[in-house]
Design goal:
200 residues, six-stranded mixed β-barrel, 4 helices, elongated, Large ribosomal subunit protein bL25
Length: 200
């Protein structure tokens, strides 16, 4: 999985007054869990744009005063009105411990059902995977090459290399639905066929 680097500085004071001052200065208060003890730090709000405002999934290297932490974003809070980032929780990764993370679904191939006028509906844009940090995928590939009109693609049909999907077997990733136009054409064809048989 691709990684991005965020540079910040550790926080000594984590009280409400100090946190407000941090936000007023255009910085985001953050905390890293998963290690021996939580690590509180701040970083410029602009440093998070490639992590937060993207459909892609990333691991993160947080650099604080010469110390690096390999982490993933676990939780994020936004201001209800301004949408500014208020706080971010990170979780520290261990090379030998599996982690659960959401990654995007990437559709590949061409569906015969879509070529016949069906509409592809993506039910799951992201899927939860479990893997060692080194095996976390950038995305889960979903091939629609065999989907006919009305077919569904279940998670059990997806390839999983060195990672597990954390979803029930009956989870639908995407499906090809019959469009109104295709349905109307089928009804008209059926009527025409019926009319033809009557004339005979």
């Amino acid at each position: 999985m691709k990684s991005i680097t965020i540079k910040g500085s550790e926080r000594e004071n984590v009280g409400k007054k100090a946190t407000k001052a941090v936000r007023d200065a255009g910085m985001v208060p953050c905390v890293i869990y998963g290690g021996n003890q939580p690590v509180h730090f701040v970083a410029d709000e602009r440093a998070f744009k490639d992590l937060v405002y993207t459909p892609n999934a990333h691991t993160v290297v947080v650099e604080l005063n010469g110390t690096s932490y390999n982490v993933i974003m676990q939780d994020i809070q936004f201001h209800p009105v301004s949408d500014k980032i208020l706080h971010i929780d990170f979780f520290q990764l261990s090379d030998d411990k599996e982690i659960i993370m959401e990654v995007p679904v990437k559709i590949t191939g061409t569906s015969p059902g879509v070529l016949l006028g069906g509409v592809l509906r993506l039910n799951q844009r992201r899927l939860k995977v479990k893997a060692l940090p080194k095996n976390l995928p950038d995305f889960v590939e979903a091939s629609i090459s065999e989907l006919q009109m009305g077919n569904k693609l279940y998670v059990t049909k997806l390839e999983t290399n060195n990672f597990k999907l954390m979803h029930p077997d009956n989870t639908v990733v995407c499906q090809v639905r019959i469009s109104r136009a295709a349905m109307k054409a089928a009804q008209e064809a059926a009527k025409a066929e019926k009319g033809g048989k009557k004339k005979k």
